[in-house]
Amino acid sequence: MIEVKDLKFQYNETDVALKGISFTVNDGEWVSIIGHNGSGKSTIAKLLDGLIEPTSGEIIYDGEKLEQKNVSKIRRRVGIVFQNPDNQFVGFNVKYDIAFGLENHQVPREEMIELIDKYTKCVDMNEYLEREPESLSGGQKQRVAIAGILALNCDIIILDEATSMLDPEGVFEITNLIKELHTKYNKTIITITHDLNLAKESSKVIVLKDGLIIKEGTPDEVFKERDILLSSNLDMPFGLKAYYLASQDEKVNKNKELMDALWEYHFKM
Ligand SMILES: Nc1ncnc2c1ncn2[C@@H]1O[C@H](COP(=O)(O)OP(=O)(O)OP(=O)(O)O)[C@@H](O)[C@H]1O
Ligand SMILES: [Mg+2]
Question: Which of 144, 159, 152, 17 has the alpha carbon at shortest distance from 72?
């Protein structure tokens, strides 16, 4: 379990990115963090992975407070996939890209080949082992990043806008892979996203605004808060957009049955 308690973070004297946020993530849970640009989402990801230290407050992994002395142990458990697939691809081909991450975590060479083989199969990239990054799509590069995380046996995976630079096909591929990581591999998942289609698949949604949590609940509970979503500048799923447009149309919104039906439909789309 991850416990975040009254977490504050300030980049400098003027930029207060997080103003005291608390939440928990249970083992095997899928939590989405949504919110407008600059609301503090990526700062949370960096703090969770120990890349930066909180100004105050704490992050506790299974009862153990994240500190300088255990940061490398905890980082071994927490894998992050970032937004830009090109920035995180470091090897000259798929095989070496994953090997590089394993080497950083002192995985013995003999184990590497087996791990690379096994986990590129999981993400359906096993036939691309010798391929160079230039010849891969964004979605394929993100799948390689995820294979690298799986090979390290991380039990917590944070995806910071990992689908936002992908084409629709890439978004579809990675969304399905995230679902699989959650259901089949029982990973704890934190998706940071503008995409409500992705957020609606998670078990819990946290809405951030100006460094504070303004709403937390199931997707169903959170998506009902129209003003929150509108003020958060999020990409709404088509069905939800249709519901909100209808709710603003006085000719339609008085028909409660129709509005209820539209609300129900959006979950099925
Ligand atoms: N390196 C930095 N130095 C100073 N201020 C920063 C730095 N990185 C982020 N900030 C500020 O901290 C706040 C939170 O930024 P953060 O990157 O966490 O937001 P975000 O919710 O991830 O935004 P986006 O949706 O654009 O990715 C913003 O006001 C931002 O300007
Ligand atoms: Mg960000």
Answer: 152
Residue 212's closest CA among 231, 198, 189? Answer: 231
| Residue 102, domain CATH | 3.40.50.300
What per-residue confidence (pLDDT) applies to 46? 95
Q: What is the mean pLDDT of each run of 10 residues along the chain (269 residues)?
A: 97 93 97 92 95 96 95 92 88 93 89 93 93 92 92 94 87 91 94 88 94 94 80 71 83 86 74
| Paired strand residues for 266 | none
In a domain, 118, yes or no: yes
Task: Note the ligand closest to the C-alpha atom of 46.
Answer: 1
Assess if residue 196 is contained within a domain. yes
* Pair 237, 243: CB distance under 8 Å: no
**Domain tally, the chain:** 1
Phi, psi angle pair for 31, to nearest 5°: -110, 135
Q: Using a 6 Å CB cutoff, which residues line ligand 1?
A: 11-12, 15, 17, 35, 37-43
Q: Strands (DSSP E) along the chain, which ranges?
A: 2-10, 16-25, 30-35, 56-61, 64-65, 78-81, 156-160, 188-192, 204-209, 212-217
Cα–Cα dist 210/261, whole Å: 34
Q: Atom 2 of ligand 1 has which residue's CA nearest to it?
A: 11
Does residue 134 form part of some domain?
A: yes
> For residue 210, is it within any domain?
yes
> Containing H/E element for 205?
strand 204-209
Angle between helices 256-268 and 238-248 (to 10 degrees): 170
